[in-house]
Design goal:
A three-stranded antiparallel β-sheet has the order 2-1-3. It is built from seven helices and three strands, in the order H-E-H-H-E-H-H-E-H-H. The termini are far apart. By secondary structure, the protein is mostly helical. Helix 4 crosses helix 5.
Length: 138
């Protein structure tokens, strides 16, 4: 671990945060001024600038950028970091606006393909809960 930054593949966080979600987002629930939310399948990846300023970011922002060394979906980040989905959406939009993340919103026509939705559901079920137990498949 160089400069306090975990190597790729290591979990950048420990137990779930006890901080209330509205405190993390300063009470904001919409991720942007447009009020549109990022779909859960939106892919985000850290920029070189984001990685360069990693040690100057707030706790949750640090964890999001560190987790995004490889492309991650909003849903994957929320599950991995044990943060509320809307907290990740708000902070990811902030980080995008600051140039710390690159955001790739999928084509909406593909999102409505049932095979894509099935793969997303299967992927979410493959994420163990806080006790390390996998969810039932159906």
């Amino acid at each position: 671990m160089a400069d306090g930054i975990p190597p790729p593949g290591d979990d950048p966080v420990g137990p779930a945060s006890a901080v209330r979600p509205f405190l993390v987002t300063a009470g904001r629930v919409a991720p942007s001024s447009s009020g549109r939310t990022m779909p859960v399948e939106t892919q985000v990846v850290a920029t070189a600038e984001g990685l360069d300023v990693l040690d100057r970011l707030s706790f949750e922002q640090h964890d999001i950028v560190a987790a995004c060394r490889q492309p991650q979906s909003i849903a994957e980040i929320a599950a991995r970091l044990r943060l509320h989905l809307n907290v990740v959406r708000v902070l990811a939009e902030d980080l995008r606006a600051e140039g710390r993340l690159t955001v790739h919103v999928p084509n909406s026509d593909v999102v409505h393909d049932s095979s894509v939705l099935r793969r997303v559901i299967d992927g979410l079920r493959a994420i163990p809960d806080s006790r390390g137990v996998l969810r039932d498949t159906d």
